[in-house]
Fold:
Amino acid sequence: MSSILSRAFAVRLFAAAALTVPTIVQTTLPTAAQQRGVSVVRDAEIEAAVRDYARPVLEAAGLGRSGIEIVLVNDPSFNAFVAGRRIFINTGALLMAETPNEIIGVLAHEAGHIAGGHQQRLREQLGRAQTMAVIATVLGVGAAVAGSAAGAQGLSQSAAGLMTGGMEAARRSLLSYQRTEEITADRSAITYLERSGQSAQGMLKTFERLAGSMALAGVRVDPYQISHPMPRERIANLEELARKSQYFNRQDPPALQQRHDMIRAKIAAYTQGHAAATRLFRDNPRSAAALYADAIGTFLAGNSRAAVGKMDALVRAGPNNPYFHEMRGEILIKAGRPAEAAQSFATAMRLDPNRSGIIQIGYGQALMATGTQENLRKAVVELQTGLSREKEYGTGYRYLAQAHAQLGDVAQAELATADGHFYSGNYRDAKIFAARAQQKLPNGSPGWLRAQDIINYRQPGR
Structure:
């Protein structure tokens, strides 16, 4: 991630659920997510595009009304995984995928895990594997004690082998189960793509990419020691079925492809730099995506004046694109022109069909930056409304706290700070600020009750 971060492409830490189902490609990220949390990107444009990619396959999987959330992970590898009712997908996957169809195939696979109840069944398999390991350990300890009492060294050595072998058998059993679930999710994905009238070519291309990467790296893998089938095996299992579909040669609609190019431009500029973003579109340097990458790259390089001019040209060419206006507003804030930035954000809000809370928070930030009392009061309203739709957007609470503080409302500033810490998972500081806010708020008021909720909160499992 670039050292210069905008509000529109903000990164926060998000703790993944305690269990994740293996991803469509082999990676250790789910385990890392369990241990450290994952770095999550918030961006209205990218989130809207990926939600639109996911909608048809989620409907086909019977998950259209299940409240499935798409979460963007700041990681350069081609990866996706599920945790609870959330599908996590790496920015690296979006950047490497040349077409929306490739990402749609990934999302269809992850939908297969959710619809198939694989997470719960994996928990059950983990329990069985742990039971097998415990039994092997108990038997091994018993044999070791017997061998020691009899003075039989060979029996003690056999006991050690029994313990090791039992645990290895449990591990292999779990891996075998996971590979079976991956194959099931692959087949489910083909079904969802067929039902939604989309091609499975993107899925096959993903596996081809992985197989090629492994070949180039000279990777040699024991297929029984991994949680996923080998890429060539997955292609063999799916290719005939995929090619039978009447939709196999269907291409993504041009408008959807252009949106995909736009989000790739943004991700490349923010995560890999101006030069990398420019190279991504070197075959079509005058395309809207190439110009978008150039404008963002210019902004991140610190040349806000030139970046505004480049965004102005894009706005003239695409006046109804809400994300052009949002990015223009972002740049204008950095250029010290907050009143104009507020106008751009207001236009973005009007044009945004998704009513993104992130864009509305940007509008509130711009209003706040003007420094007038009237706009500060407006900023509080806009920030609160945006946060009502984006409760986990920690950056918004920081702006809200600043706006309240500038208006002299210390209690509400401390409550907003408490909420920001709470939704960032920093419960200790959240409780401290909630207690401070509560001392200044009227007993029983909505703010007082919210502070009490934070103070009383207990983390699950503790």
Summary: DSSP finds 20 helices and five strands in the chain.
